[in-house]
Amino acid sequence: MSHPEAGAGKTIDYVIASDDASLVWLANHAAIELHHIHARRPNFDKPDYFVFDPDPPEHLEVFGCHCFCKTTGRKGVHVVLPLEPGEGNAFVVHRHHASRLHYDLRLEKAGALRSWAIPKGLPPRPGIKRLAVNVEDHPLEYLTFEGKIPKGEYGAGPLWVHALGTYVITKDKKDDSCYFRLQSAIEPMLAESRDAVPESGDWSYEVKWDGIRAIITIDEGEVRIRTRSLRDVTAHFPELCLPEQAFYASVAIFDGELVCLDETGRPIFTDVTGRLQARGETGIARARTRHPAVCHLFDCLYLDGRPIGSEPLDRPVPLFAAARSVGVEGIVAKERGSSYLPGKRASTWQKIKVRRTTECLLIGYTKGDGAQTFGALHLTDPAADVADGLQYLDEIDRPLPFKPPDDAEMIWVQPQLWCEVQYASRTKAEMLREPVFLRMRPDLADTTRDETDELQTED
User: Fold this and answer.
1) Half-sphere exposure of 390 (CA within 13 A, CB side)
2) What is the Cα–Cα distance from 67 to 307, expressed in whole angstroms?
3) Residue 93 · residue 145 · CB < 8 Å
4) Whole-angstrom Cα distance, residue 193 to residue 85?
């Protein structure tokens, strides 16, 4: 709850939903208002209208604004004020089944979409020309429009977004036309989670690296690296921008994982995420020297004019036992014969993470909410390698030489109770990643140790 001031002596309570159950509970009470986003994809940084919620709306008209009332609020109306359109560079390719199946290309220019019908299909590779018939301009709403145009209207029939992105003008012509290049962002395919390796079916297997998912594009000697959220991080990994040494391809799109490895070859997640925090040429160069990155590619989506994401998959033998033995995050199982589905999570891909367990002594806990017995646990692991001078104390005081972030809520107890914890991996600071409490271990109650080492948990 937060309590911002709403007037003299008044406060307003806001509920922060931190889990799915709380969100569903709020939805059941009709306490959630949905508001339109003020921009159109892919240009989320360029809003094209402004929303006011005054009563009455006539106050804006005295400023010469031509306003439009829409019932976007829960009650009453919102006043929508269009913004002056900028010179955007978005494009969309529609698959259009009107009188016959064809494609439509639309380019954003001067606040509208200049449009062409491509009746003979898209060119399969660069260098192939296709007839493009210039048709009337369309409104910007068509950038994301999908649906069925009613019978009797222009272009009647179903319409789907085939590709969406931005374009770059490569050469202007004297007749107000130009040459341009389309740049469409591809989102990586996602895998469903499961606890065990599939025992039936025709699957192939590969290592699941603990790093940053990335889409790598090669375009005539230029490398672009984008994360799963389509953030361009090319500048953060200059050692990977060597297309002439790494690829025998002019134009290609790959799906892979960026990782930083330790001296044993195991990926260290905090090292690769730290690379994204570096700023400036000096900071990036320093981070590169401390934690050099490598990129493991596991899928090729496009190669020299030929899209191959829909071609059947075929890979080598299972790796789960090896993944556990060398300490990597797990494996990914992919059904042979399946296609690559950009941006989709499909059952044809299954990720199986390696889970490890350890026995720990309980030295503190926080109270739980409702039916929860406890909220968080503070543990010590006798198997850890780094000693922090933890001592057994008779009184119930903080038994640590430092104050943890949740010290005010923590109830400290004598280190006598053992529990079993599941986790993904250990960080360099001996913190557990993705820890999960499994059970108490009363069978270890007689186990003693003169000195124990402090092990913190991450998240």
Assistant:
1) 27
2) 46
3) no
4) 43
pLDDT score for 382: 59
- How far apart are the C-alpha atoms of 442 and 440, rounded to whole Å? 6
User: What stretch of H or E contains 453?
Assistant: strand 453-454
**Residue 253, beta-bridge partner list:** 217, 302
Please name the residue ranges forming H helices in 5-102. Answer: 20-28
- On whether the CB atoms of residues 234 and 217 are closer than 8 A, the answer is no
Q: What are the CA-CA distances from residue 220 to residues 303, 317, 335, 383 (Å)?
A: 12, 34, 33, 52
Report d(CA 278, CA 259) in Å as an integer: 16
- Over residues 110-142, the pLDDT tens digits come to 788 999 999 988 876 666 788 999 999 998 888
* Percent of the chain residues past pLDDT 90, beyond the cut: 13
Cis check for the bond before 56: say yes or no (omega within 30 of 0).
yes
C-alpha Rg value of the chain to the nearest Å: 29
pLDDT band at 338, cuts 50/70/90? Answer: confident
Per residue, what are the HEC states of 367-419?
A: ECCCCCCEEEEEEEECCCCCCCCECCCCCCCCCCCCCCCCCCCCEEEEEEEEE
Place of tokens 């500048």: 235
Indicate the pLDDT class of residue 58, thresholds 50, 70 and 90. Answer: low
Q: Max alpha carbon distance in the chain (Å)?
A: 89
Q: What's the rounded Cα separation, in Å, for the pair 51 and 67?
A: 10
Amino acid at 187: E
